[in-house]
Amino acid sequence: MNRILKTFVLAGFALVAANCKKNDDGAIQVRDRQEVYDDDKSKIETFLKTKALSFDENGNLSFEDISEGNSGSIWNQQEYPLQSVELKNDAYTSQTVTGRIKDDVTYKVYYVIINEGGGEHAKTIDDVYTKYTGFLLDGVTKFDQNDYGFWSSYPQTRYASNVELISGYRQILQQIKTASDIYENPDGTYGFNNAGRLIVFIPSGLGYFNTATGAVGGYTPIIFDISLIMKKEVDHDNDGILSKYEDINGNGNFWDDDTDGDGKPDFLDLDDDADGKTTREEITYETVDESGNVIKKLYEFDQIPNCPGGTVKKHLDKACY
C-alpha cells in the first residue's frame, strides 16, 4: 500500500523510458504537463460518458459499460451527481516556502460523493485515516486496495510520520467529512458509522505523472473509491502550536507563512520569529498546582499573549526576545 500511495514529487527520478522522449543529445525528456493533462482529461471524460456506477449488496463498487448519451452514465446520472473542482498540484520537493513542485497546470478533477459523512472536514495538513480501492481507467483492474484503513500525514515529519499521499487523493478529501462515530466491536476491532465516501478520477499530474508504479503506468489517470474515517490535528514541528493555527495570513495555504523569512514555513519552524528562543519556550509559562508545586505549562493558542506594546503574539514578534 505505501508503495502505491506515497507521493512521487521528483519527476526526474524513476523514469520509465518507454513513456519518455529523448532529446538529440540522448537526454530523457519528460512530457509537457499541460499536454499530458489535456490527454488525461479527454480519456477521463470519455470514461465518465460510457460507464455506469454499480454497487453490490455489500456496497462494493464496479463499473458497467453503457452507451454514450445514456442517462445512466456517470456523466448524466443524478443519484450521485457528477461534480468537479479545480486543483493545483500541492506536492513539495522540499519542506521550504519555495519548494512546491514546478507544475502550473490547473486540473479539473471530477468526483461523485456517495456519502457526505457525519463528522468533520479535514484540512490538508491533518493526519487522516482512510480506506480505498484504486482502479485503472479500464474500470476493471484494481491496482491497489486497503479495506482496513491506514493513517497518512502531510507533510511527513518526525512528528507526523505516516506515509504521504499523492496530491489528488489528499486534496479531494476536503469534499467529504469523517465518520460520525467510531465504535469497538466485541472482538476488539473497531467499526464506524456514516463515513464520508467519494469516487474521484485523478489526472496523472496529480497522481504519479511519468512514474510507473505497480500496475499503474507512466502518464496514467487513475480512479480511487475513498472513505474518510478519522482525522487528527498535528503539530508538525513539535513547537507547541498545532499546525492549523500557523496559517498566519488565513489563506488556507500553510506553506506561504514564513514570519522570520528563513525559508521555512511557520508550521515547520521551531523558532518562528528567529529570535534565538524556540517557539515552545516562548509559549511556556509557570503556574502553581493544587499542591503548591511550580509547574510549566503551554499556553492555549488563543491565550498566548502579545509582546508588550505589540500587536501580534509573542512567539511571532522578535522584539519579545
TrEMBL record:
Q: Which InterPro entries match?
A: PPIase_dom_sf, TSP_type-3_rpt
Lineage of the source organism?
A: Bacteria, Pseudomonadati, Bacteroidota, Flavobacteriia, Flavobacteriales
* Organism listed in the record: Paenimyroides ceti
SUPFAM superfamilies on file: FKBP-like (SSF54534), TSP type-3 repeat (SSF103647)
Which top-level group of life is the source organism from?
Bacteria
Identify this protein by name. Peptidylprolyl isomerase
